[in-house]
Specification:
Layout: H1 12-22, E1 31-39, H2 42-54, E2 58-63, E3 74-82, H3 86-102, E4 106-112
Antiparallel strand pairs: 1-3, 1-4, 2-3
Protein name: Regulator of ribonuclease activity B domain-containing protein
Domain Regulator of ribonuclease activity B: 11-112
Organism: Acinetobacter higginsii
């Protein structure tokens, strides 16, 4: 299969999606994608979490281990069940970045489980 650079541009998101295709993932099947935002303070993550819950988003959050300097980070994951298309990923990243800035956090990227379908099963 030859890479279609219109569908999978030569950038981070396009490269990840193309690698998933090469690994045998069916991108037209729904995947649960986690978009992550990190915060320095519990108060910030809680305000953002409430905002997203009011928008009916599925979320999870946790506190990373406290580091030796006493600092810690709070991670908020937004779980989106979606067909993996480049433009949709880009749009959601833009929205997540805007939300992160609004609540003094930093957008930290996305990820999902790979689903390899065996034709014999």
């Amino acid at each position: 299969m030859t890479r279609d650079y219109d569908q999978f541009p030569d950038n981070d998101n396009g490269n990840v999606l193309w690698q998933m295709v090469e690994d045998g993932n069916e991108l037209n099947e729904p995947h649960e994608v986690e978009f992550s935002i990190v915060f320095e303070k519990q108060e910030q993550v809680e305000k953002c979490a409430l905002h997203l819950l009011h928008q009916e988003q599925k979320i999870s959050l946790f506190q990373e281990e406290v580091h030796s300097d006493g600092s810690d980070l709070w991670v908020l994951n937004i779980h989106v069940n979606m067909i993996l298309e480049y433009e949709d990923i880009e749009d959601l990243e833009e929205w997540m970045t805007k939300i992160a800035k609004e609540f003094n956090g930093e957008y930290d990227g996305w990820g999902c489980m790979s689903y390899i379908y065996d034709e014999d099963e």
